[in-house]
Amino acid sequence: MIGYVTVGTRDLQRAAPFYDALAKELDTPRMMESDSFIAWARADGQAAGIGLTLPYDGQPATVGNGVMVALAARDETQVDRLYQIALDQGGTCEGPPGPRGEGFYAAYFRDLDGNKLNAFIMTPGFQPE
């Protein structure tokens, strides 16, 4: 089970509102923050958290090729909302909301630093394409 994931940023103050907006929709508050990072998670620990950080080594943050953070949504409507929130916050489209095989609905987007994320819902009848 994944406890949390962390993505890098070049500008914490610029990037934070993007994640604040997604976290608000997911009812996941900020749980920790400092001058170099912010973390969002639920106190009950029932879902993985996400962290946003300036790299520890002081070098510029870079995007991992093939790396993606997936945000679990309640339903297709929330997938659609998360996608729109991401775009409204300055994110870019990597694939609009829609079915991706039987029982899997997702939308793909990038944050302001180019980190790839998606919002998804998987139903019990999931069958990959």
UniProtKB/TrEMBL annotation:
Gene3D superfamilies: 2,3-Dihydroxybiphenyl 1,2-Dioxygenase, domain 1. This is VOC family protein. Residues 1-122 form the VOC domain. InterPro entries: Glyas_Bleomycin-R_OHBP_Dase (IPR029068), Glyas_Fos-R_dOase_dom (IPR004360), VOC_core (IPR037523). CDD domains: VOC_like (cd07262).
